[in-house]
Design goal:
Number of helices: 31
CATH architecture of the largest domain: 3-Layer(aba) Sandwich
Helix content: 40-55%
Structural class: alpha/beta
Number of strands: 18
Shape: globular
CATH superfamily of the largest domain: Periplasmic binding protein-like II
Distance between the termini: 49 Å
Radius of gyration: 27 Å
Number of domains: 4
Amino acid sequence: MQATNWRKNRKIKLASLAIASLAGIAALATTIAVKKQNEFKPSFFNYKSYMSQDNIDILRKSFDYKEFDEINQFSNALINNKAAAGIGSDFIVASLIKNKLISKLNYSIIFNDSTLEPMVDYDSLKTQFKNNPSDQLKEKLNKAKKARDLAKKYVQLSLRKEIWEHLQSYKLDNEDELWEYFYPYYSQDMVVSYNTSKVAVPEEYANSLGAFNFKKYYKENEDKALIKNPNALVNILKALSSANYNNWVITDSVRDNMLYASAYWPLPEGRTDQKFTGSVEENDESENETYKILINSFVDLIKDGTGYDIRDSKHISLKGDGLEIVNDLTNPKNDKGSINASIMYNGDAIDAYYSEDNYDNAKDGSVLAYRPSDNILLVDGLVISSKLDRKTKDQYTQTISNSSYSQTPQIILEYKELVKQNLVPTFDELNDSNITNIQHLITELNTWKIWKDIKQKELSELNLEEESITNFIEYYSNLVNLSDNKNSELYKEFYDLRANDDEEDEDFDKKVNYYPSIIQNDLSKNNTSFLDKIVSLINLEDQELEDKINELKENLTAIEKVIAEILFSGEESTFSALVEYIKDNEVQENDYKELITKVIAQSIAFIDISNDDYIEDYKNLTNFNFINYVPTQITDYEVVYRNYFSDKVEGQDKNVIDIYKIENNKNVRHKALQPISDSLLSKITTYYFAKTKS
């Protein structure tokens, strides 16, 4: 079904990038040779393979772009004045702030709004006013505070609820807040993955999508469970172990693993998940120190869950490299020691789900995943060194804002547009009780605009006149614009659906993207004769089919002519994929019309955000297309969620979408890793090594 699935092959992208990089290196070498000079640029640090090439190229206008393996390399670079800016991880950034190694961000640049500029002077004015209060200083301080408060609302508006609450969970000194120093980039949490091509899911525990039914297993074994929760990590491990998933690779991150262990806290009579936390208390009782209890509990968790000692290298591997974990899990070679299950980050699990990108003889969708209830949330984000002067910081922030953050101001512009239409409260009226609905409307307006733009580019590649394309998009854009007050009932229907978090809900596709449902209803109402004609083509042979298609195209409305092009264009057309689907799934003739209507609606509704030509103006999307980690901004997250995992014929892929979704709900809660002292970290590292590897 490659013709109808938007995803590009990642290996092709990586190969193209490698070729481009070699060409770039050659060109750079030539330039240096000609100029005979090497201009100094400050360093921007980022994790390996954590930014697309087009965004790196933008940063290289001002920076020497450097990649690191471990976050402490970035921290050391900041300490030694060798880094101007970079992408850091939340809990490390909290420590960097305490050590005064990073500065507050100038959000007037990030959001491209000069009204925020006074916030930059807030701290200095506060100090000045404290030492020498005056009416003039008071006026300036009030103006700076107002700008700071507005910037805080901008940041909150732009970020997903889970991300904003995560930032707020960090408590800093001097009434500072993490968002002032750190603007989020991507996020990830933890899943348990398993390769079904190496070990089949037992038939009695396979759900309708072929995934393991963990709740059914738990229900049958509840009396033996120490933690009374079907989604507890230990119970998920036990379920998979019972099905002979016996070779594990576990992400080797001591703080992460201690967090998981806090939900397996020992009691005299068993275990509890009621002490779940990302904090580690310091105390002096040598045998009852919190860090030792947590590390011991993690060792017990792995033994009780998998049946193997954590130091049993035949069955348990601890690895810190996500790419290596993905390669081990997806490798189709299935000998005795082959890895068949993993505790890993969800971004890496998405990569593993598309196994064909890693190995030619692997199969997409063979690696499935499940999210445990007591989970970690890791957020990476932008930071700027405190050692730079203000002018330099602003210059560097501007360069960074032109890259993967280039669409960030659009969120606030959409909000202001909605305010003008009196559809949302003003900034002064913005609060925690109304922000969710405001974010929904911003998201609908922004995703609608992106849909129009990318759909225009898609249709421009077909044999259609520009006027036909414009009229077609105008017609359907009026139907699907859920930010328009005329469509308020549809807006309510959509978010009422989303409020129902039933995992087995048959309305899953509608809850992901409501556009197909809206368009399908319109097609059924206004194009029934056209749909009947498409039905009549299903079982025709090639030559007769071609003649009938040509005949069909002669008597269509303007809208139907565009739909016909969408259906029939190309060697691997959507119609061909539809016919193949009907044969493979033995679809009955009386179901043809409904299926055809659905496929046409999905073909119109979904946009291809894996095509770099279509998204070249959206540096946020080109970045995601390379990274595949979970976006932190509201519109980025939704555009990906609604489109990236879709197929024009088969609809939404629930298995991978469930990996992508990071949400706090009745089944899952996330915690942040809280910073700890260097001395405690040293103790933890030593003890963890002794318990897991020596």
